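Why N-acetyltransferase domain-containing protein? Reviewers of the renewal asked for a concrete example.
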Amino acid sequence: MKIINFDNSEKMRKRIAALYSSVWNEDENVIINRLEKHSTYNGFKAIIAMNDEEQIIGFAYGYNSLKGQYYRELLENTLTSEQVTYWLENCFEFVELAIHPFQRKKGIGRRLVNLLLEDVANKTAILTTQQDNIPAKSLYRTLNWKVIKEPFLPNGAAGKSYVIMGMELDNNI
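Here is what the prediction returned.
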């Protein structure tokens, strides 16, 4: 396995979208558009895991969480003012982690999380994951993420239930 940086080419976005779609069953165009938009955000960072056959088997990305961003506003609306100040004022938002189903339980997710946060100059990192995604929650807990709020309903009471997790970063550069 090798780790490469995201190059923001159309070909790379399509390859990532194909993996994402196989993991989350989401329309590939949705993730392509999301990547195009998010790659323009301040502090955007993405890394990709590839196998020996040059197939993408995992990816992770995030960016600086800033006022005015859609998801940042959702988080601000659900957290207390103290939590907003502590967790969001100098925050890296860990947006996506996807590992091919046949490549799980091999340490790829752990490696991508650690490498993505390496050299990030923020005080904290924040993420959300589905409340019923036990493998993801377990991975994040072993990497010292802590639950900030559970449940989190970003789409109201009718939507899927999530958990907000945060991590204090000590690699400020």
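Residues 2-168 form a domain with the Aminopeptidase fold (CATH 3.40.630.30). This is the kind of structural detail the renewal will allow us to pursue systematically.
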